[in-house]
Every structure is written in C-alpha cells, then in structure tokens.
Amino acid sequence: MLKKQYWKLFALFASISYPFLVHYLVVTGQYLLAGIYIVALLLLIAIQNFLQNNKGLALGLFFLGIVISTIVLYQAQIVIYLPPVLIPLALAIIFGRTLMGEQTAFITSIAQKIRRAPLAETEQNYTRVITYMWVLFFLFLAIESAVVAIIYNIQTWSYITNFLNYILVAIFAICEYLLRRIILRDLEHPSFIGFIKQLIQAQRSHS
C-alpha cells in the first residue's frame, strides 16, 4: 500500500500536468485518452482525500468519477469540456457558502490561519469583500469557459481554458495582493512569494 504522501505527490503532479497533457491530447484529436485522464485524475484525488479522512468528499468524487466514466464511453469530447466549467463553479460554491449567515468568510479563515490570531475588524471586512470578489471571478471563469466552448472550436477553447484562464487567475491574485497592500497599508505584508509560502504552510499545518 502506497503511503499517504506518495498519493498526495501523485495527485499534485497529475493536477499540475493536467492543462498541458489535456491540451496536447485535444490538439492531437485524442479525445478518449483525454477523457480517461480526467477520470483517472478525479479518482486519484478521491483516493487522496479518503486517505486524509475526507471520506464524504472522497465518496462524492468517486461517484462523480463513475458518472463521468460512463459519459466517456459514449462521448469523450463532452467530458473534456466539463472541468473548466465545474471546477470554478465548485470553488464559487465553496467560497460563497462561507458568506451566508454568521459564518467566517473563506479568505478571512485563511488569513486567520496564516496570522494564527483573530483579525482586526478592518481586516475582517476586507477579507470578506475579497471572498465576494473571488466568488464573482470563479463564476466568470465558469461562464466564460461554457461560452467559449459554444463559440470557438475545441482547439481554441483548449488554449483559452488550459492556459489563458490560469494566467487570469495569477493576475487576479497579484492584483488582490497589491490592493491589500494599499488598503491595509498600516499592516506588515510579506512579499508575494512570501505570501504564497505562508499559504502553503497554513495548508500543511491544517491538512
């Protein structure tokens, strides 16, 4: 039985490889292999979450993998279109549900984990607004991916969803970081790379 860290590394490598490998398979017309890769990645992430005791999420991903596997057998090209729409839509739901009622906003929770202390009211208000902005941005990505799939051919769609959208995410994150330094100028801020390292460390300590 492979150790948990190996499954995690496999899932990480497969996720990083996803846009490059799927794009290659799309432009070379190997839609069935692309669909199989997507299902395999989904099941790999399900196993990783199961080993991390996220059994509810793992079970949901497993059944989703079965459903998508069935679709692959009949129309693999449809499966290729799903991740760029479903992933940002799922993220919008995850972020958005934390804005309901008295819950702590998603970005607020991350900031608290990084600082390891409650945030000031100004920081709480800012991180809540930023959570709203991420929800809107994820919804934009989901809608954009669906519209591009309708308007353009699959090769152009692949360039946009597998490369351009990732660049847009990076630009959005950098702009938010710069905005944070302006609005919360009285606070001490690490460099952008330092901030990314803090995010990774916070995730590791709470995984």
Number of helices: 9
Count of separate structural domains: 2
Shape: globular
Helix content: over 70%
Quaternary structure of the protein: single chain
State which percent range the strand residues make up. under 5%
Instruction: Tell me the span between the first and last alpha carbons.
Output: 21 Å
Brief characterization of the structure:
The protein is 83% helix and 0% strand.
Describe this structure in words.
The chain is mainly α and 207 residues long. The chain has 2 domains: 1-81, no CATH class; 83-207. Helix content is 83%, strand content 0%. The chain is built from 9 helices and no strands. It has helices at 4-27, 31-51, 55-74, 76-81, 83-97, 106-115, 121-151, 154-183, 192-205. Helix 1 (4-27) runs antiparallel to helix 2, helix 5 (83-97) packs antiparallel against helix 7 and helix 6 crosses helix 7. The chain starts with a helix and ends with a helix. The relative contact order is 0.09. The model has no long low-confidence stretch (mean pLDDT 82).
Write the layout of secondary structure elements.
Blueprint: H1 4-27, H2 31-51, H3 55-74, H4 76-81, H5 83-97, H6 106-115, H7 121-151, H8 154-183, H9 192-205
